[in-house]
Each structure stands twice: as structure tokens, then as C-alpha cells.
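Fold this sequence, please.
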Amino acid sequence: MNAGARPAPPGRAGRTRVCPHCKAVVLESLSVCPGCRHHLRWDTEAQQRQEAATCALKVEGEFRHSGVDEPLEYDVVIVIHDDRGEEVARKVVGVGALQPGEKCGITLSVEVLPPPRAVEKAAPATLVSVPKSTSTAPAGGSGIRLPDGTVLTPPGLGPKSK
């Protein structure tokens, strides 16, 4: 069973999507993928929710090959159960082998995001407008001159290089 296979409850909470970067199933409301850490969208409210997330569970540990014989193989499996004890998802997240004397560390963490309305909305960005009377085109009509002297030139209309 996949983590995204369970139907989401009514509303937006729990709805999933596929990260276009790493193809992991992630929450639709996230602005950054928790797997590959690439940006999924530039939404201020979603970013604030994700920044306000708390770590509900964190388990760290390590295991080692204490023998001197052959390598040992291992697999790391995560299983999620619901409140009735039924398996919701099972995923193999890693496999490998340990040579004699080697060790491997694992960290498991679960983040919990606050409800969408629990995060204060950011103040809207202030837009700066340039009055038309001060926007005069430079010589040759190749762009727009801003009040600070900056010339905005459309592609292909700037000075020609030799």
C-alpha cells in the first residue's frame, strides 16, 4: 500500500501530489518537498505553515556489524498504522550491506503542520509604481528610463556587440 493510496478526508487536509523533482508522494499543501528539499511552489502561507511545523517524533540510532566474517545485508522499512492498528503504508526506504566493523546511522522524524488558518497571514508586498510622466524613453526609443536613471531595454534592442 502506498502512502498516497489512502483517500484524504473531506477538505484539503491530507491531500497529496507527486514531487516533480524526486517523484515522492508529498502533501499538496507543502511549499518545499521534505525528501529532496526542492521548492514546490512559492506560496507565502504554505511556507509559513511549513516553517511552523513541529517535530512530533524523532528517533535516532545506529547499528553495526560486530562480526569479523562476511558482510551483513540490511533493509530499512517504515510502517505507518492508523488509530485502529491497521497498516496504512509500508515502504522500504533503504537497503545495503555492512562490512565487518562498519556502522550505519538512521534518523526517523515526523513533522506535524499547523492547520492553514493557525498561521498569521503575511502582509501583502508593497508594489512600487513609476509615474508615466517620469518614464521617458532614452534616445532611439530602445527602452524605458526609470526615475533613478536605470534603462529597461527589451531583449534584442540593446547596444549591439561587435
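The first helix runs from residue 44 to 51. Residues 17 and 134 are 47 Å apart (CA to CA).
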